Amino acid sequence: MKKQVLFAIATMALASCSSDGLVNNSSSGGAEAPIAFSVEKKNITRAASFESMGHYNFGVWAYKVKKDDTQLVSQKVMDNYLVGYSNGTNIGYDNSKVFDSTWEASTDTVADHVSPWFYEYLGKGEYDYDGDAGFYKASQKEYMSVNDNQYLRYWDLAYTNTNFYAYAPYRSENVSFDYDTKKITVKAAAQTAGYDDPSLQEFMYAGAQATNAELKDVKLTFKHLGAQVNLRFYESVRGYRVEIIDVIGNDANGDPTGIQATPATATETTNGASATETKYYTTCGATIDYSNVTSPTANVNYTDAKTTHDNLKFAIPDKDKENGLEEITSKRNVKYNVIPEAVVTGTQKDFATSPTVYYPVAQPTTSEVGFTFHVSYKLIADDNGEEITVKDARVYVPAKDDSGNYIAAWQPNTKYTYTFKITESSTGSTSPTNPDITTPSVPTTPQVYPIVFDGATIEDYTTDVTKEY
To answer: Shortest CA distance to 315 belongs to which of 360, 369, 267, 253?
Structure first.
């Protein structure tokens, strides 16, 4: 499903992506049948593996089950086991102790019991890596297991099935599982928005039921408790090309923050012309219900959750051609990196994308928090290379559209792509003032005006000639 809402200087698209393909399987086998895992991501991104997004671990509870006459009998197999990824060189977890069991960098089938994902020797009492290759170190407690030891587990053919209850990223505290109710409880402290490190922050969950006799590796398809937020741009200014610029400067980490979004609630209906700065949630708790183990559901709660009124900060599209920028040389022999132009006919396909991606927690369905985006850019005339700088063009994106669809009130497992179309009707200013990126209100009238001639007059000229000698 895809919905679009038109704003003063931007068209904003809301898009949800379908399931990814299989990411990891296992490869070369062994004489026995240990339990091994493969991992799949759902909805947030296409053609991106779990590990390529910076996720190198997940936690899992497992119980084997069978029918004993009329009574269901179960037994615990894994108790919040840490399952980690390793590329074998410098990413994820050190795999030196498991090299001859279930770890293998390449994969082949779901019945060979080896994979880049492993769990044996990842207990906090046995994982002791302290080198400099790049693997997680034992001193990095947030990435370590709650268990002292983690042993290789095998399929028990005396039982019919084994159920797996998984979540990511791994937490040694603030996450618990109740087998009687089949629910994982996530405290707010365990679910923090992925503004700085998605591998540590973005929370996901998955469930699977395996048939023990099949001896196949467990494929986990993760859903997201939070959302994903991206920005992209194109332009439709006849006779000009547009370059997005950074007039704000770098943040404390040295990263450019030329595009910012101020959380606000609209007090007028016209494009958020008058808006009040407000806060949004940066943490939340949740209950993951595994009553249907293969299709778990999440209920978000905000008890003890944290909020902030800080702006979202996006880097401007860079010179990478994959971001859709085109290098041009103006008539004044000046080089620019401009965003794509709107297509005359057909569907717009080319966009300039900000390299910044956020993984925020879901917001309440009752949220009225929207965002006022601040964007600055240069207009470069095609015919003579004239340059005009437009600072702090603003557009307000509401929590919901007129049909009740969530736009800025981010919902779980949903990707939000805000697409800005730069047009002649800009709310930015060409005056040499510094932009106030904390102002949530949007001017009601454009601030960039065309040059207009208001009539013409003809005056008589005199025929008198004055000569000087």
So the answer is: 253
Token duo for residue 427: 């709310």
pLDDT at 457: 84
Q: Is 200 helix (H, G, I), strand (E, B) or coil?
A: helix
pTM value > 0.70: yes
296-338: per-residue pLDDT in tens? Answer: 999 999 999 999 999 999 999 987 777 899 999 999 999 999 9
Residue 183 CA to residue 194 CA, distance in Å, equals 24
Task: Classify burial at 157, counting beta carbons within 10 Å of its beta carbon; exposed 0-12, middle 13-18, buried 19 or more.
Answer: exposed
Determine the pLDDT at residue 16: 36
The rounded distance, in Å, linking the Cα atoms of 185 and 177 is 6
Dist CA 64 CA 385 (whole Å): 71
Q: Is the pLDDT of residue 354 over 60?
A: yes
Cα–Cα dist 242/74, whole Å = 64
Residues paired with residue 353 on neighbouring β-strands, in sequence order: 232
Q: Output phi, psi for 28, to 5 deg.
A: -25, 135
Instruction: Please calculate the CA angle 93-361-178 and round it to the nearest 5 degrees.
Output: 70
State what percent of residues in the chain have pLDDT above 90: 57
The Cα 191–Cα 92 span in angstroms is: 21
Whole-angstrom Cα distance, residue 338 to residue 241? Answer: 6
Nearest to 358 by CA among 166, 224, 171, 185: 224
Residue 456 has pLDDT above 70, yes or no: yes
Residue given tokens 């990707």 in the structure block: 415
The one-character DSSP state at 416 is: E
